[in-house]
Amino acid sequence: MENQQETAAAEHLQSVRWNSDHLEMLDQRLLPEEIVFLELNTAEEVWEGIRHLKVRGAPAIGISAAFGVYLGIRGFEPAGSGREALEELSAEVGRIADYLATSRPTAVNLFWALDRMRATAQALAAEGVMTADELKGALLEEARQIQAEDEETCRLIGENALTLLHDGIGVLTHCNAGGLATAKYGTALAPFYLAKEKGWDIKVFADETRPVLQGARLTAFELQQAGVDVTLICDNMAGMVMAKGWVQAIIVGTDRVAANGDVANKIGTYSVAVLAKAHGIPFYVACPLSTIDLQTPTGEEIPIEERHEDEITIGFGKRTAPQGVKVYNPAFDVTPNEYVTAIITEKGIVYPNYQENLPKLFEE
Ligand code: MRU
């Protein structure tokens, strides 16, 4: 794995980008201090990148995994020929996808993207008209397509979100659901970029987002780079900011929306939602349809990742807790649907009753 350092301005920094024969992944662990792109050539390197938060954010994880499938199969030489070779290749795609699916459990976009790669391989193998090399090329194209679609999807989410905001509004966000977490624009942060283009002045408050500080390191960084008015606060200041009347809306992203509208997002989101309700402030969730999981009935069934205790006790290399102390470190929490004012998607804005209204998004 090679590192490629960039010192140029971080405008429109892409979290992952395909470069002729390899994947470049921005190492988000190093932001905001260093802009380093890693050169990835194998599915194992992509798995590592996802597991260790070099890339993170639900859509960006899915995009990376799709490229990871291609990297995993490009060196595979089927033993058979013709249709048999295509079926072997398709089975190998399934095996690589199963492996990449073990990298992180909560963001459903990972499984969505892997299923799409599997389905593409199966459909093309069933047609039986391509060579194995052509099928590999089609899988690379599918990964690129997933990335391109995400950019367009995020722009549409931003446009829809903008209809809920106005010039001069204050908005609080949690974690990072920006360009770094997606192909471009982000989900929760997309309206801020579009508002900037319109000349609106939106004041964004970014929770720093303990324990690994996606809000401070990533959201504050990318909004500042774009010239958006952003103020960084510690997570425990959100209530104070709301009480002072400085924010009139909350917008967050999500890793998975259950069929009943319960929403999993970065740990701390639930507290923000409860505070928002207490202050009569609308709490919006922005996400693509690929984050909505109608197969998972409620938030209870969403698998919540627990991460290593070191993130809390020796985050960023400094010990801040006694050796041996018991630690609980869930990476996500679930906000019950009753706190969610609306879910903003590329297909429009969905209001309760979510159980009834979310499936309508998937109707043609
Ligand atoms: O652990 P992370 O950094 O992957 O968590 C990311 C989040 O919780 C984001 O809010 C979510 O993925 C939405 S990204 C558009």
From TrEMBL:
The keyword Ligase does not apply. GO terms for molecular function: S-methyl-5-thioribose-1-phosphate isomerase activity. InterPro entries: IF-2B-related, IF-M1Pi, IF_2B-like_C, Initiation_fac_2B_a/b/d, M1Pi_N, NagB/RpiA_transferase-like. Its EC number is 5.3.1.23. It holds the Pfam family IF-2B. SUPFAM superfamilies: NagB/RpiA/CoA transferase-like (SSF100950). One of its GO terms (biological process) is L-methionine salvage from methylthioadenosine. It is an enzyme of class 5 (isomerase). The active site is at residue 255. Pathway: Amino-acid biosynthesis; L-methionine biosynthesis via salvage pathway; L-methionine from S-methyl-5-thio-alpha-D-ribose 1-phosphate: step 1/6. Substrate binds at residues 56-58, 104, 214, 265-266. It catalyses: 5-(methylsulfanyl)-alpha-D-ribose 1-phosphate = 5-(methylsulfanyl)-D-ribulose 1-phosphate. The keyword Hydrolase does not apply. Keywords: Amino-acid biosynthesis, Isomerase, Methionine biosynthesis. Catalyzes the interconversion of methylthioribose-1-phosphate (MTR-1-P) into methylthioribulose-1-phosphate (MTRu-1-P). Belongs to the EIF-2B alpha/beta/delta subunits family. MtnA subfamily. NCBIfam families: eIF-2B_rel, PRK05720.1, salvage_mtnA. This is Methylthioribose-1-phosphate isomerase. It comes from Paenibacillus aurantius. The lineage of its organism: Bacteria, Bacillati, Bacillota, Bacilli, Bacillales.
